Design the sequence.
């Protein structure tokens, strides 16, 4: 479906199929969010949840809903969307469907930042600054990886390899820190490393929100460029794309998205790897279509994982990251198995 | 004859190795120019430098009268299209999606799919006879079809100059002729300048108005195939002995290499 | 690496006699490092004491006891694990024809660890023999998954795909392992040091069950040297020369799993040895696997012993887990290789 102004100065194309799929997925997301608000150690009936949300309820569940669960579900949504799109961008830039945000050192960098904070500063400085430490770590490590990959330009392959090397180094440092720290710190650190939404509050949500609200539309606007870059550097240059500049630009967006998500939720794995694949199966290769769909699917995965994490081992509240891997990985393998002959 | 692309005192390095040295070459407008030479002689490098994919160590490339380094890359893309060797499309990309990418240099954020874009893409599909393949996956096509899809993309760019690096390598004979015939038609009917690297000397002779032999970091010879392709040239450029006869259909030089083989009827 | 790269690399030892001599020298170096490993540490022990401890053991002498119990065990484990990992790395390189293949990179270590941790936390399995078999299982499954994942798509098993697949599978198993450890908090502390890679604090009983497997695997790999060389030219050429490539590959796979799995069962996750050592070995003796394997074994043992020594001193009086040490040495090396483009075929 094409939209064009009379004078042909403005024109867009929108695929009807994509709109439909996005709509269906949004519905699914909404349902899941309501489920997320209902489930927990106190099960609240979904209908009551809806009433409370729109202000018609009795206010009995205010604390549980508004202070505990709502922030958590919203955080899950934002984190999932951010990680999903970060992975999508990365797979487009590296031109490989197996790329994930950890390769550019985001997760391992954030881990270093977070663990350093937990081990050395947790007593002295408020826990509020943990996300900041994580982002600083992620930025520094990503920067190092990019610099090391630079040899008259950055090729995807070199970046992947160096990313793996630096991540290994970062992980070794994290292990070192864990070994020399005390038990309490170690447990908290491991919790963070696995990825957890425990204790998410609205403040955190408001901190993460601008990142997602700004970066996702920005990526959407630049989508055409990624489409061209996917054809290869030579062809992209031939079509007039400033390859190196845009590569850096998209990498930055990916790092910012993944970094901010990981900063608040810890090392949640697999969303960035799996969500793009799922959306590609639904809507094909057009990058502009993939962005909203991936964001929604990412949100769905994390919310679902969080629900399971909260109720699977009641009364224990398990870290969400365990289940993003548990849900994401088998699905991923199933997907790939299905497409193996194509 | 106007010269649309010019290399002036060009020196190109690959790492530490000198590939081309103080090379001067002018590409005639509206003709088919073919670069030939032995493996590794630098013809691909020369073509890629013309297309600004490689930065020369010294010397300049002129696109019409402008130094190519000074022109914004998107503007170059409106005047010059390059099809590199062995392009790879992402898995699952359809033919239509691929060809639409060719319109990138002419589009902007607000103007993403104008009437003109649509017309040009349809024309490109028609010319390459790919209209029936629009929704097929590029990687599911045969070699010849795939190459036609890529050429359609460069056609959608609507440039006067098309550069192709070995567009017929890995294609069987029928598909090679298919592609070269297509390029020939484009040149004749739309007056597009075509510059390509071919490794098959005989096909080069048949299709080229202007043939350029590259040897030893320099241009060895250039001109009409009838004048340039001689036994001596083949000996010096390809290090091979041959006999030159006239192609029985086209009258262009046909190179028959010496060596071993069955001798029938003589 | 393709043929050209093989030839272009400087082969320092070109003649067979030079290779033999150097191997001998390396063995001597290994022996010296071994002795050093026993001598140095928080308590320095004199060479004479060591001699005495072996030949005139006096169980009242604390030094002798230290030597015989902890130091000797530690040195032996370090040497054996170092050699195993190095050989496993060399064989993986041969099998995938990819200079970036190593047990830690391709998820094999992570798989073995996950299975062992599962056994400990979920099934409370305690016996050392079981750990070993479980490690084999985990290593095998992880390896198979990586191969499968990396082969998907129309262009088959390219080097970069297998590396990325390895990273993905490693992330998967690490994530699951972390999850298990978070659920079972008591398990965490006890397992942590081992997880990070450690050759200390073990009794020789931990090594004994796996030792025969490692020995057999090593001997078989040396004997298979020529077959491996043939395999390097490519499947088609190898088949054309009459080799049963499938059997050869399966055997290599089994040996790799045994060596890597055993190492993990005994010493936890030690990375980069399998990556770096074959590189050094190839730089010394070229592409002949009949030489690469013995050299890798000796160099690997020496390297891990040295790493263990360093791990004792760097953050004295605390000890650094050896896995961290190998990462600290190995990662910069790996990055250097990546930049140099020696892995360019990836």
Sequence:
């Amino acid at each position: 479906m094409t939209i064009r102004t009379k004078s042909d100065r403005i024109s867009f194309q929108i695929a009807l199929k994509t709109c439909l799929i996005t709509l269906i997925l949004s519905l699914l997301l909404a349902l899941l969010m309501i489920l997320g608000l209902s489930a927990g150690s106190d099960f609240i009936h979904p209908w009551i949840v809806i009433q409370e949300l729109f202000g018609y309820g009795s206010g009995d569940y205010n604390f549980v809903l508004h202070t505990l669960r709502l922030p958590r579900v919203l955080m899950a949504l934002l984190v999932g969307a951010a990680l999903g799109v970060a992975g999508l961008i990365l797979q487009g830039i590296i031109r490989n469907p197996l790329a994930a945000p950890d390769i550019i050192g985001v997760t391992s960098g954030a881990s270093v930042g977070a663990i350093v904070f937990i081990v050395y500063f947790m007593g002295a400085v408020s826990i509020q600054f943990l996300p900041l430490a994580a982002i600083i770590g992620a930025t520094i490590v990503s920067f190092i990886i990019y610099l090391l990959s630079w040899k008259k330009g950055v090729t995807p392959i070199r970046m992947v390899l160096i990313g793996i090397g630096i991540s290994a180094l970062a992980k070794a440092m994290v292990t070192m820190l864990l070994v020399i720290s005390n038990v309490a710190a170690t447990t908290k650190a491991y919790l963070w490393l696995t990825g957890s939404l425990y204790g998410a509050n609205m403040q955190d949500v408001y901190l993460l929100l601008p990142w997602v609200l700004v970066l996702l539309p920005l990526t959407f606007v630049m989508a055409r460029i990624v489409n061209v870059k996917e054809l290869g550097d030579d062809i992209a240059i031939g079509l007039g794309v400033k390859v190196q500049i845009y590569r850096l630009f998209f990498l930055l967006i990916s790092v910012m998205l993944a970094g901010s998500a990981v900063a608040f939720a810890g090392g949640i794995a697999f969303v960035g790897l799996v969500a793009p694949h799922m959306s590609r199966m639904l809507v094909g290769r057009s990058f502009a279509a993939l962005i909203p769909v991936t964001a929604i699917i990412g949100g769905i995965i994390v919310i679902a994982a969080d629900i399971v994490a909260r109720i699977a081992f009641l009364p224990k509240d398990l870290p969400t990251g365990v289940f993003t891997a548990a849900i994401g990985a088998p699905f991923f393998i199933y997907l790939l198995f299905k497409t193996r002959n194509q | 004859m106007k010269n649309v692309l010019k290399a002036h005192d060009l020196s190109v390095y690959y790492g530490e190795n000198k590939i081309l040295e103080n090379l001067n070459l002018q590409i005639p407008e509206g003709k088919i120019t073919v670069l030939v030479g032995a493996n590794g002689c630098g013809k691909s490098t020369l073509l890629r430098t013309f297309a600004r994919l490689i930065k020369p160590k010294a010397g300049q490339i002129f696109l019409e009268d402008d130094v190519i380094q000074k022109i914004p890359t998107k503007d170059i893309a409106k005047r010059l299209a390059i099809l590199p060797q062995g392009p790879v499309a992402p898995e699952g990309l359809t033919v239509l999606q691929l060809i639409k990418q060719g319109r990138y240099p002419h589009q902007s954020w607000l103007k993403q799919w104008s009437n003109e874009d649509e017309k040009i893409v349809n024309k490109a599909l028609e010319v390459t006879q790919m209209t029936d393949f629009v929704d097929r996956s590029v990687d599911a096509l045969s070699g010849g079809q795939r190459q036609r899809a890529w050429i359609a993309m460069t056609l959608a760019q609507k440039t006067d100059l098309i550069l192709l690096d070995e567009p017929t390598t890995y294609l069987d004979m029928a598909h090679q002729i298919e592609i070269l015939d297509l390029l020939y038609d484009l040149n004749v009917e739309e007056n597009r300048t075509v510059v390509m690297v071919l490794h098959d000397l005989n096909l080069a002779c048949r299709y080229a108005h202007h043939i350029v032999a590259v040897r030893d970091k320099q241009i060895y010879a250039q001109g009409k195939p009838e004048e340039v392709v001689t036994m001596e040239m083949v000996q010096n450029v390809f290090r091979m002995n041959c006999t030159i006869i006239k192609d029985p259909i086209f009258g262009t030089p046909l190179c028959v290499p010496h060596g071993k083989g069955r001798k029938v009827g003589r | 690496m393709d043929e050209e790269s093989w030839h272009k690399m400087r082969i320092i030892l070109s003649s067979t006699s030079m290779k033999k001599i150097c191997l001998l020298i390396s063995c001597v170096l290994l022996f010296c490092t071994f002795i050093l490993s026993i001598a140095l540490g928080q308590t320095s022990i004199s060479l004479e004491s060591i001699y005495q401890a072996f030949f005139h053991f006096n169980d009242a002498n604390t030094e002798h006891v230290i030597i015989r119990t902890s130091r000797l065990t530690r040195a032996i484990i370090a040497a054996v694990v170092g050699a195993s990992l190095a050989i496993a790395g060399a064989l993986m390189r041969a099998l995938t024809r990819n200079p970036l293949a190593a047990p830690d990179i391709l998820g094999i270590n992570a798989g073995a660890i996950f299975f062992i941790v599962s056994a400990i936390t979920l099934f409370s399995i305690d016996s050392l023999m079981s750990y070993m078999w479980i490690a084999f299982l985990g290593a095998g499954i992880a390896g198979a998954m990586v191969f499968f994942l990396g082969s998907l798509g129309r262009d088959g098993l390219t080097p970069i795909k297998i590396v990325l697949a390895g990273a993905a599978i490693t992330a998967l198993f690490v994530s699951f392992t972390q999850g298990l450890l978070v659920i079972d908090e008591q398990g965490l502390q006890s397992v942590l040091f081992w997880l990070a890679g450690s050759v200390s604090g073990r009794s020789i009983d931990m090594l004994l069950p796996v030792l025969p497997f490692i020995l057999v695997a090593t001997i078989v790999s040396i004997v298979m040297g020529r077959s491996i060389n043939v395999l390097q030219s490519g499947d088609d050429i190898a088949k054309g020369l009459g080799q049963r490539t499938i059997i050869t590959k399966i055997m290599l796979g089994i040996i790799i799993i045994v060596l890597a799995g055993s190492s993990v069962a005994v010493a936890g996750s030690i990375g980069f040895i399998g990556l770096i050592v074959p590189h050094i070995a190839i730089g010394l003796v070229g592409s002949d696997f009949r030489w690469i394997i013995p050299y890798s074994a000796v160099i690997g043992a020496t390297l891990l012993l040295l790493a263990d020594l360093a791990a004792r001193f760097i953050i004295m009086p605390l000890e650094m887990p050896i896995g961290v040490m190998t990462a600290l040495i190995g990662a910069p090396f790996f990055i250097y290789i990546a930049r140099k483009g020696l892995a360019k075929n990836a």
